[in-house]
Each structure stands twice: as C-alpha cells, then as structure tokens.
Amino acid sequence: MNTTEFLSIASSICPDRNAIVFEGRRLRFSELQERVNRLANALIAAGIQKADRIAVLQVNCPQYVETYFATAQLGAIFVPLNFRAKQNELIHMLNNSESRVLFVGERYVDMVQEMKQNLVSAPQLVCMDGDSHGMAAYEQMLAQHSSDQAFVEVDDRDTTILMYTAGTTGLPKGVPLSHGAFSVYVLENITPADPEAQETNILSVPLYHVAGIHGLLAAVYGGRTVALMRQFEVNEWMDTVAREKAHRAMLVPTMLKQVIDNPSFHEKDLSSLKVITYGAASMPFDVIKKAIGMLPWVMFINAFGQTETASTITVLGPEDHRFTGTESEEVREKKWNRLARSIGRPMPDIEIQIWDENGKPLPAGEMGEIMVRGERVMRGYWKDAVKTAKTLSANGWLHTGDMGYTDPEGYIFLSGRGDDMIIRGGENISPEEVENMLYAHPSVDDASVIGVPDPQWGQNPRAVIVLKPGAQATEADIIDFCKDRISGFKRPRSVVFVDALPLTSTGKVQRKILREKYGQPRND
Hints:
Blueprint: H1 4-13, E1 18-22, E2 25-28, H2 29-45, E3 53-57, H3 62-73, E4 77-80, H4 87-97, E5 101-104, H5 109-115, E6 124-127, E7 136-137, H6 138-143, E8 159-164, E9 174-178, H7 179-189, E10 200-203, H8 210-221, E11 225-228, H9 234-244, E12 248-251, H10 253-261, E13 275-279, H11 285-294, E14 299-306, E15 311-316, H12 329-341, E16 342-346, E17 350-355, E18 368-374, H13 385-391, E19 398-406, E20 412-417, E21 422-424, E22 427-429, H14 431-438, E23 444-454, E24 458-467, H15 475-482, E25 494-497, H16 511-518
Parallel strand pairs: 1-11, 3-4, 3-5, 5-6, 6-7, 10-11, 10-12, 12-13, 13-14, 24-25
Antiparallel strand pairs: 1-2, 8-9, 14-15, 15-16, 16-20, 17-18, 18-19, 19-20, 21-22, 23-24
C-alpha cells in the first residue's frame, strides 16, 4: 500500500469525522480529501509530474498536511524543510533536491526572497497563508481547480519523501524514504479507521521531522483526529489536551520535561491521555521517572529510530514503564535499569546487530556500533554515493553511528554516538550514563558530558551543567556528588556551568558545539 491510500480509506470510512483541529478550525476527512484533490490538480496544471520535488518551508498547519498528500497523490516527492535551518542550509537543500515548487509560510517570505537568486532550480513560489507577496496564492490555487481525484500509478518502492537530516556534522544529507517504508510500519502496528472508534492525537512535533510525519500518517490511517499545533508551547499543549480530550501524544524529552515541571501542571486536565510516546533524543532518567509518578494512568512508550530508518526501529513498551506492588525487587531493578538506558527491543520487521570496529557481530554484553537492516531502511543518500558507501554495507546493513550493547533478553542499551564516546585510559565512558547520574543532583536542571584531552589518560570527562533557576552549586559540589554514585574512571574531572545547552530542534544536545567551546584542557 502507498500512503495516498491512507487518506482515501479514512475519508471513505469516516468522512464526517474531524481529521484536523487547528486553532479553532475543524477540517473533516471528506473536506481534507477534497482540498488535497484540488491542490493535486493545481500542481498538475503547473506542470508537476511524477518524481518531481515539491518543497515546503512552514510550521505545522493544515496546508502542510494537504501539500504532502497532494504531492503523494501525483507520485511526486515531498521535501519538508527545517524552518530553523540557516539560509545556506536551505539553499543547499533546495538546490540538492532540485525542487520545482516551494510552498512558503508568510513568516518565511522575506528570507525566501533573499535566497531566490541562489536557487538554481528556480522553483515556483506559493505563499501558503496571508498576503501572497507577489507569489501564487495557496487558497486561490485550490479555488481554481477541480475536486476530482487525480490518479497516478504509485508503487510502494517509489520515494514519497526526501527528508534532510539535521546536518550537525556538515550540510544536511537527503534521505529518500519510500511509500513502503512508512506503510510497512503503519499496516503492522496501527488499527485501521473504524466508524465506531474515535481517538484524538495531539501533534506538536514538527512535520519536517520523521517522527512528525510518522505520527501524522499513523493518525490518518487510523481515522484519528489530529489536534495540530504550529509549534510546541507547554501551556498551549496542556490546554489543547484538555479541550480536545486528546488520547495520544508524541513528545521529545525536552517537551515532556517542560510539561511535568510546569507550575500549572496540577491545574490542567490531562486525564484523557492514554499513551505518550517519547523519543528523538536521549531521555534523562529522572524526567521519565518523575513523569511516570505524575501521570500514573498513562502508558509510556520509548520509540527509537532515525531518519534513515523511516522512524521507529526499537520500542521500550508500556510494560517496562509500569510498576506494581507485587513485583520482585529483581524485576523492579531491571525495569529501572531499562528506563535509565535501554531503547527497548527491535520491531518485528527490523534486524539489529552490534558490530565491532572490524564488522564482526558481538555477543550480548559487549559494546559496539548498532547496525540495522530491514525493508524500511533507506537505499542510499540522495545524490551522494560517497556517504552512502560509508553508511550502508554491501548486504544492506545500516551504520547508525550509535554505540550500544544487548542484554541476554534482547534489550538494547544505548551508550552514545560513536564520536561522543570518551576513552579514558583505554576504558570507554558513555556520556549518557554519567549524565543520568548528574540529573539526580538537586541543583542540576540539564547536563552534558564531553571528553577533554589529557596527556596521561588520553581523555577526561568534563560535565557541562545548567543549574535550576535560583539554585547554586560549585565544581567541587558536583564532583563530590559523583564520588559514591559512579565508577571512579567515569567521574567528571572538571565542571563548566552554562546558561543553556545547545540543542537541535528535537532536543538533542549538540555535543560537537560543546566540544568546540569547552573541550580544551584548562591551565588551572
């Protein structure tokens, strides 16, 4: 099945159900299908053909959803752009993809006008909202074209989305993802639309991120109402959950932390929530532990994946987040350990192995690189044979760049990115392990750990700490706190205090920036 059928099936089964709720506007499945058809016909009139690239630079909104499904209906390729990217990165993505049309949110019009002379493919520009600023106007395009559905033969193997990675180690890389990469997961894990069963998903993760698109497609196939937010704002998120009686949510760790730390938390009605899925960055142990205590009725799921794998490849399920009074101490300890560091077990359609530096699979308990193979794994980077050869093995194994190990029960434990590992005196130190310990300090609000060159040991761990508002702590306080809580060789030898950690749009700490700023030995 290709993703264009997700909407057509849902609109046939529950046409009058709200598909999208957005800032007071309610769009039924039948209306969404009609608007998608009109936009697809408008794109045909503009000369768009199968496999042409259609880019979008905008925050989450209904037009974003419509543009994806109209693009997919034509067998064209959707290019969602990170609205937080820098101009040079956006120019690279548009030129690399050779996008023929660029849909622009009004807030980004001025930037696009500045970039226009550097865009070699000279894309047609469409303003999605507000004044059209001399561009084609989105609503006018829809009004001028037929609501009849366009039919183009689309194969599961055809690329539906060209998604660019965050680009923390250089210019963003294009990852072509097929219709099948999404439909394999959705068909296996999501109950199809049911006229008698109704759920609401709140979606605040950006749609340029694979988790956002993944969540959208799953909700549409399931006939669920999507309570869509432009961007995450904690009070608005809680108010939307209460107002729309949302059942499901996807949050990155920084979002979940903001929810449970919010002073108004106990004043908000979040009782409708049944499931919270979290992922896209490492979850501090104290955050998920606190969330379980404050939202005991919610099923938590840790979903781990990458853009290159079309999202989720491992799951730490609700059973590992739920504690009962009848469990033995051994069972409880295992669960806490998994919550602290495990990303769960592989999905049924995914193979995972741990390899050493020579490409040899390692037994349980030994740390190496996490390797992934399966139908959802990309077939290669867009127009980049060199990076493809470095990332994909000849027999289809993907180098994730993440280090980890498995336990005898098949749970996978993450130890960090390969280039983030700290090696002190020949001993590997996982930054995440040290960070989870630091989060337990009563004055620490956020923490990251990097390696600093040392002539005797090779590297020493350094903690980069953000203190809670009004809290105080010294370097000696932090180091003393670690002494009885972690092995001696893993303890930070120095501490830097900062106002905030540099984060990607999904809440991942940019350790490369921290290493550049704070990764040199001190003279004291």
